[in-house]
């Protein structure tokens, strides 16, 4: 297969000579900044990844719907394994940005737009991202791959069943399902949400719990997040359901990294990432047990 740079040059969409610059980030994709005589775009490379349940046709459909909903850049061209999208002159958020109360309020509006507006524009079959089933599938993938973590799986699956029982009753929205700080951009006027690898229908608590766990929000911020999203005071029942889903988010991220250790070809220190997320999950689980 041609190198990514060669495939970019051969897309047949450019006006004149182009420059290609790798972009940092992307744990399941390779990303490039490309300039021709007329415009600057972002080019994203990524094939289907069955072990992570990533389907690029779903990513394309979600990206288009998110653009139509006004929360994601336009897709300008696509080819097998390639998305060419509008490049935004915007700042990538950090966990410190998300911890700011004013920014958190803006992010809640972005999440609600994702949850409620994307289904109005989504075309074709839509996926569901059910974190508990994702975890169960990861466990089977780890067994098949003779992962060094196989001995942990029975205990992790027992916790998964307990979390699934505690997180209901469930309402369903259209989730982004990967709310890392790096997937939220600020152009100075508005926020944008990018990277729709895992998009699909889900409980709103998964995105809220994922935002909190991925960015290490403290309890005061978590309460503010829930009250801003649901527009009601947080009661004990909602708090427990939310904490269960936050634990599930951390466990899924841990097992995502475990699977990536044995399957990914991208240069990233997955082993350290596994250890970091496992430690955070263990801490969240201990706190959940006290509720």
UniProtKB/TrEMBL annotation:
SUPFAM superfamilies: Protein kinase-like (PK-like). InterPro entries: Kinase-like_dom_sf. Pfam families: Choline_kinase (PF01633). Gene3D superfamilies: 3.90.1200.10, Phosphorylase Kinase, domain 1. GO terms for molecular function: ethanolamine kinase activity. One of its GO terms (cellular component) is cytoplasm. GO terms for biological process: phosphatidylethanolamine biosynthetic process. Transmembrane segments: none annotated. This is Phosphotransferase family protein.
């Amino acid at each position: 297969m041609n190198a990514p740079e060669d495939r970019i040059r051969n897309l047949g969409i450019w006006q004149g000579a182009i420059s290609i610059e790798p972009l940092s980030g992307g744990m399941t994709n390779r990303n490039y900044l490309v300039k021709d005589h007329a415009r600057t775009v972002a080019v994203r490379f990524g094939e289907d990844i069955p072990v992570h349940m990533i389907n690029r046709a779903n990513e394309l459909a979600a990206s288009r719907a998110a653009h139509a909903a006004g929360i994601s850049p336009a897709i300008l061209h696509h080819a097998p394994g390639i998305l060419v999208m509008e490049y935004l002159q915007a700042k990538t958020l950090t966990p410190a940005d998300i911890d700011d109360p004013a920014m958190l309020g803006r992010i809640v509006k972005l999440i609600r737009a994702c949850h409620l507006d994307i289904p109005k524009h989504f075309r074709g079959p839509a996926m569901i991202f059910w974190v508990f089933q994702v975890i169960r599938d990861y466990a089977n993938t780890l067994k098949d791959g003779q992962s060094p973590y196989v001995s942990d799986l029975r205990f992790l699956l027992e916790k998964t069943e307990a979390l699934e029982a505690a997180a209901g009753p469930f309402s369903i929205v259209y989730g982004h399902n990967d709310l890392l700080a790096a997937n939220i951009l600020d152009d100075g006027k508005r926020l944008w949400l990018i990277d729709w690898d895992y998009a699909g229908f889900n409980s709103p608590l998964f995105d809220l719990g994922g935002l909190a766990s991925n960015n290490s929000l403290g309890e005061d911020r978590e309460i503010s997040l829930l009250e801003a999203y649901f527009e009601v005071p947080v009661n004990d029942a909602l708090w427990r359901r939310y904490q269960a889903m936050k634990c599930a988010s951390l466990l899924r991220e841990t097992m995502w990294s475990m699977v990536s250790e044995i399957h990914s070809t991208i240069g990233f220190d997955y082993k350290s990432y596994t250890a970091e997320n496992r430690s955070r999950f263990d801490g969240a689980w201990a706190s959940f047990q006290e509720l």
